[in-house]
Amino acid sequence: MGSPNFLQVVAKNFDVLALPLVTLVYPLYASIKAIETRSSNDDQQWLTYWVLYSMLTLFELTFAKVLELFPIWPYAKLIVTCWLVLPHFNGAAYVYRRFIRPFYMNPQSASTIWYVPRKKNIFSKQDDILTAAEKYIQEHGTEEFARLVTKAEREERYKRSNNYMIFDDDYIY
């Protein structure tokens, strides 16, 4: 058969050609445009996109060998990136609001996910929060424990009352 024409080459390598345009060129242009406007909505949209793009790139670098086994991965990445980038879908805002922001704004939930109880040996009692509280009460007394809890509650109220959070919950992109 003869040499492939230009359209066949473009169709065969569509992901290689379109991916840099969708993931880098357009977002860079839109980010520069957003910097030059006074609106913070577009700034936040593009900062959110770059955070998600960085996470996607880290994921891709980490699991590169596994992703090579899936020939559909570049096309899936292109579709997901289009969803994140295009203002019509506002996918970056959706992912950030639904998944990243709740995890980031509630560090207690993040620490409980990674909490692994420590054991002195296989047969000892589990070192969980209740055990630690009981031990603290035995060593320092109930009044000191109550003072500690009150102090922690006061600090939490202070953080919430003084606009400690970076984003407002009712902020819509």
From TrEMBL:
<dbReference type="InterPro" id="IPR004345">
    <property type="entry name" value="TB2_DP1_HVA22"/>
</dbReference>
<protein>
    <recommendedName>
        <fullName>HVA22-like protein</fullName>
    </recommendedName>
</protein>
<keyword id="KW-0812">Transmembrane</keyword>
<dbReference type="Pfam" id="PF03134">
    <property type="entry name" value="TB2_DP1_HVA22"/>
</dbReference>
<feature type="transmembrane region" description="Helical">
    <location>
        <begin position="72"/>
        <end position="96"/>
    </location>
</feature>
<keyword id="KW-0472">Membrane</keyword>
<feature type="transmembrane region" description="Helical">
    <location>
        <begin position="16"/>
        <end position="35"/>
    </location>
</feature>
<dbReference type="GO" id="GO:0016020">
    <property type="term" value="C:membrane"/>
</dbReference>
<feature type="transmembrane region" description="Helical">
    <location>
        <begin position="47"/>
        <end position="66"/>
    </location>
</feature>
<comment type="similarity">
    <text>Belongs to the DP1 family.</text>
</comment>
<keyword id="KW-1133">Transmembrane helix</keyword>
